[in-house]
Design a protein that fits this description.
150 residues; single chain; alpha+beta; 5 helices; 2 domains
Length: 150
């Protein structure tokens, strides 16, 4: 079983609370005000909301069964874990951005200040990722799916 976040575009209201809570979760302070006003460099969210007319939805890593980003990574900073999740080790990332180019979903972003790639990590240490827990309309859901072996 692989944990992943699924989106429901039909109920997303474009409030961007997923972005806000993701940024806070990845900040040093874990405090809303300090994360936005007191930290330098400011943490960056691993999710972003796209809007086109009345449609809005969160874009984040889908933890693909065949992760093109991991195959493209020159240093092995991105790899698929035994549980199927796709993990990015920022310490190994050299900021070459090949993963950004390889991801067909546009789910990997660039931290230009630290020169590392960023992607959803499902908020390690939390039972439910911050974006899912704080989505007021349940447009983001944490699901577990069976992944075919071999």
């Amino acid at each position: 079983m692989v944990k992943m976040i699924r989106r429901r575009e039909e109920v997303c209201i474009g409030c961007r609370l997923c972005e806000v809570h993701c940024l806070v979760e990845h900040s040093r302070s874990k405090d809303l005000v300090h994360a936005y006003k007191g930290e330098n460099p400011r943490a960056l969210p691993r999710v972003r909301v796209e809007e086109q007319g009345a449609l809005s939805f969160a874009v984040q890593c889908l933890h693909c069964q065949e992760p093109l980003c991991a195959y493209a990574c020159l240093t092995g900073a991105i790899r698929q874990m035994e549980d199927g999740t796709v993990f990015l080790d920022e310490g190994k990332c050299i900021g070459c951005w090949t993963c950004v180019l390889a991801c067909p979903y546009g789910a990997i972003s660039m931290d230009l200040t630290r020169r590392v790639a960023l992607k959803c990590d499902l908020c390690p240490g939390r039972e439910t990722p911050a974006c899912v827990e704080n989505c007021p309309n349940r447009a983001l859901l944490l699901v577990e799916e069976e992944v075919p072996v071999g």
